[in-house]
Design a protein that fits this description.
The complex is a heterodimer of chains A (258) and B (288). Chain A is of the alpha/beta class. Chain A has a domain of 172 residues: P-loop containing nucleotide triphosphate hydrolases (Rossmann fold), CATH 3.40.50. Chain A has 10 helices and 10 strands. In chain A, helix 6 links the parallel strand 7 and strand 8. In chain A, helix 4 crosses helix 5. In chain B, helix 2 packs antiparallel against helix 12 and helix 7 crosses helix 10.
Chain lengths: 258, 288
């Protein structure tokens, strides 16, 4: 039952028309890891996440989720997903926070079945863990960007995933709230042992919470413990990215993704 | 009116179908509007017209089609159109809306050909275009009932999947939902509703019964369930009022139903504006 890795990529490449987006990516993520994937715009970060989520098929290579081949993997509800706020939904959509979070139970509940009886308790618990339980009855469109993003995390949490994948979740969130947002993620990682994969530009802000770092730019230049990452010289980073990752967040934190 | 309703079967047919359509068109319309597919309903209604015009034309030369309710060929055309639209949307991935003018013009083109071949507009065709109080047969009513059962069963079975797919398609796919299949079924059911509504509101105005009540309800609803409830209430009000007016004034009901919907929409829009300004004033007053 227990696979050695939650997520394992072996030699994964992805090509879009003639353009190579990802080349020979191998990556292992263990249960309880908090991995930050760093890379400039256009480095293939979102594509990598979409391949893990099964939204895109790799051109070559092999993706294993909890020890099973990605295309045979049935328990998609084990992997929660929080996309960038900007393209997540239509702001005018008539739905309450409760309805949005409840929809996170769709896969777990299964086709042709009603939501379980304890759905409302689960929704409330998920909202509590992101500090949004007071907003349950409000319309999703009335909330601020940061609040909406917390609701989307609650939607991912309500199905009790083993792993949570976040694609630049802090884009569009006020800078003062970013730190508390990451603290909340770290709490989920430590208390509920949820594996986290976070694509981000804010390596400084998040560096206290993460356990692993992967540097991506078409291919993986570094993957390992955070402490080893801190030993990497600025010259190396410069060679991989053309500029220093450690300084990226000052200028690029608000920039949209590739 | 009540007396006429008891005495005349055609009125019973019209009102019974009207009430059913007033339920299912806005019900499905909520999903169509939030998924930004309103124009697809329009394209499909024109394809349905091609099927009906084709059937009316064929009925002139073949006995089989003379006996066949033109609605059947209309349904076949609408369902075919819905499947083709999906095909085209996938073919033109980055220009999905291109599918709409392609299918719509194909529908109008074939309609024009069949109508000309059948020697122009008959009163029968006019009733398909703008609806009719008197032309709804018992058989039409049965078709509407069967379609309503299919639509309601579909919505009950797939409600939570359709909600998730409408709200956040990427998330729905990432959580392993069979999005492609649910969407295809949704398009086919939409085609069925269009075919069913056509007898009452007419092909040219079908899509408005799916969108106008929803446009009004979205201004008021806080939740998705409220949006559905208000849309159905507005839809029913428009259909019933529209049919009564059409009956007394001898007007095509498509017109009266749609104009009633527009009046409801205006009342909601203006009412909400007034209500908001009153709330603002009161809040301002309490601060000062």
């Amino acid at each position: 039952m227990n696979a050695p890795y939650d997520i394992e990529l072996n030699n994964v490449s992805f090509q879009y028309d003639q353009t190579i987006v990802l080349k020979n990516i191998s990556l292992q993520v263990k249960q309880g890891d908090f991995l930050a994937v760093l890379g400039p715009n256009g480095s293939g970060k979102s594509t990598l996440l979409k391949i893990i989520l099964g939204l895109l098929k790799p051109t070559s290579g092999d993706v294993q989720l909890f020890g099973e081949k990605s295309r045979d993997f049935k328990n998609r509800e084990w992997i929660g997903y929080v996309s960038q706020k900007s393209n997540a939904f239509n702001t005018g959509f008539p739905a309450t926070v409760f309805e949005v979070v409840e929809s996170g139970l769709v896969k777990k509940t299964g086709l042709f079945k009603k939501y379980p009886k304890d759905a409302s308790i689960r929704v409330e618990k998920a909202l509590q863990s992101v500090g949004m339980e007071k907003f349950m009855k409000q319309s999703i469109g009335e909330l601020s960007g940061g609040q909406q993003q917390r609701v989307f995390i609650a939607r991912a949490l309500v199905a009790e995933p083993k792993c949570l994948i976040l694609d630049e979740p802090t884009v569009g969130i006020d800078h003062e709230h970013v730190q508390s947002f990451y603290n909340m993620l770290a709490h989920l990682n430590r208390e509920q042992h949820i594996t986290l994969i976070l694509v981000t530009h804010d390596v400084d802000t998040v560096s206290n919470q993460i356990s692993h770092v992967a540097c991506l730019n078409q291919t993986i230049h570094f993957h390992g413990f955070k402490n080893d990452f801190n030993q990497i010289s600025d010259e190396d980073l410069q060679a991989w990215y053309g500029h220093s990752v450690r300084k990226i967040h000052h200028t690029k934190v608000r920039e949209h993704n590739d | 009116m009540i007396e006429a309703l008891i005495n005349y079967e055609f009125l019973q047919n019209a009102f019974a179908s009207g009430i059913i359509i007033g339920l299912i068109a806005p019900l499905l319309g909520v999903f169509i509007v939030v998924r930004r597919l309103s124009l697809i309903a329009d394209a499909l209604s024109h394809v349905t017209l091609a099927g009906i015009a084709g059937s009316l034309f064929l009925s002139q030369s073949y006995a089989f089609f003379a006996l066949l309710n033109p609605l059947y060929l209309g349904i076949v055309a609408a369902v075919t159109g819905s499947v083709l639209i999906e095909r085209l949307r996938r073919l033109y991935k980055h220009y999905e809306e291109l599918a709409i003018p392609i299918i719509m013009s194909a529908g109008i083109g074939f309609s024009a050909i069949f109508i000309s071949l059948a020697n122009g507009f008959s009163s029968d065709l006019f009733s398909y275009l703008f609806g009719s109080v008197s032309a709804v047969s018992r058989q039409d009513l049965w078709i509407v009932i069967v379609i309503a059962i299919i639509v309601i069963t579909f919505l009950l079975l797939f409600f939570k999947e359709l909600f998730l797919l409408s709200f956040d398609e990427e998330y729905a796919k990432a959580s392993g939902l069979p999005a492609k299949w649910v969407h295809l079924l949704f398009m086919i059911v939409t085609a069925l509703v269009i075919a069913a509504s056509m007898r009452i509101v007419g092909i040219l105005l079908v899509s408005s019964l799916m969108t106008l009540p929803v446009a009004a309800s979205m201004r008021l609803a806080k939740s998705f369930k409220q949006a559905i409830l208000y849309a159905v209430v507005f839809g029913e009000a428009a259909v019933i009022l529209g049919l009564v007016i059409a009956f007394y004034l001898n007007i095509a009901p498509g017109g009266t139903i749609v104009v009633t919907s527009i009046i409801i929409l205006l009342i909601v829009l203006i009412g909400k504006k007034i209500w908001l300004s009153i709330v603002m004033k009161n809040e301002g007053g309490s601060v000062v």
